[in-house]
Amino acid sequence: MTYLNPGESRLLWAILRKTYGWHKKIDRISYSQFHDLTGLSRQHISKAIKRLEARNIITRSGNGYKISYGLQKDIDKWILVTAGELNTATEFIKHDVIGNSGGTGNSGGTASVTAGEPNLVTAGGLTKEKKDTIQKTIYIYTHWNNRKIILHKALTDPIKRSIHSALNGYNKADICGAIDNYNEILISDEYFFKYRWTLKDFLGRGLEKFMDLETAKSNYRKGDKVDNGRSNKNAKRKLPSEYTIPTAYASKGL
């Protein structure tokens, strides 16, 4: 039930072959062995290993050229993502969970050190609640970007905090439903409300306004309320570089 790209899948099968294929739980595997088993270049091997480790699907221990790999057998600790969430998930785990661990290499007992690479720690020490929060955060962030209201180039710390705060009062389905309601009001000519919030601002200022679609329609339907002009003015405001309005909408002055 989780997505692996082709390189990750090859690496995972190679690790399984070198470990359980020889009745071992872990084994010391060199990049040259990985290359012989998968046909992948050293660069692709490195990237695939980092992704698998960041999602806690494999373990890696040792240092220098003496590194052992194994399968993380407890699949409840895996970070499960779809194809569209893969890059976001990897960056989230690397910079949030791993970054906050202190870089000791002791979380879950899986240090990750190779020649010429930074120290990383996998999410092996995640509690069920923390992993659940990560997956919900990734899902909501991806859901927002898929609606193309304002595209965020990165899942920043302020956005994470705003999502976590929203999750304290609402569940994932409620938040995504409100995003869909907001998007429907924005793109329809029936409504005068055209103010485009960032995800952070929407969660802080607009979430409750769009929690119920029929209420939002009643509040913003043309003719029911007087448009004082502020909506269109604000919709054209200059955004910081980390945000973008999709071209299709920007060309219409939305």
- Beta-strand percent range: 5-15%
- The CATH superfamily label of the largest domain reads Winged helix-like DNA-binding domain superfamily/Winged helix DNA-binding domain
**For this structure, what is the CATH class of the largest domain?**
Mainly Alpha
Specify the CATH architecture of the largest domain: Orthogonal Bundle
Class computed from helices, strands and strand pairing: mainly alpha
CATH topology type of the largest domain = Arc Repressor Mutant, subunit A
What is the overall number of helices? 11
Main β-sheet description:
3 strands, antiparallel
> Alpha-carbon distance between the termini?
38 Å
Q: Domains counted in the coordinates: how many?
A: 2
Helix proportion range: 40-55%
Strand order of the largest sheet: 1-3-2
Question: What's the overall average pLDDT, rounded?
Answer: 77
How much is the radius of gyration in Å?
A: 22 Å
Number of strands: 7
Can you write the helix and strand succession as a string?
HEHHEEHEEHEHHHHHEH
Molecular structure report:
With 254 residues, the protein is mostly helical. It has 2 domains: 6-125, Arc Repressor Mutant, subunit A (Orthogonal Bundle); 132-250, no CATH class. The protein has 11 helices and 7 strands. The protein has helices at 6-18, 31-38, 42-54, 86-97, 128-147, 157-167, 172-187, 199-206, 213-220, 230-235, 247-250; strands spanning 26-28, 58-63, 66-71, 111-112, 120-121, 151-152, 243-244. It has a 3-stranded antiparallel beta sheet with strand order 1-3-2, with helices on one face. A two-stranded antiparallel sheet has the order 4-5. Strands 6-7 form a two-stranded antiparallel ribbon. Residues 97-124 and 226-236 have low confidence and may be disordered.
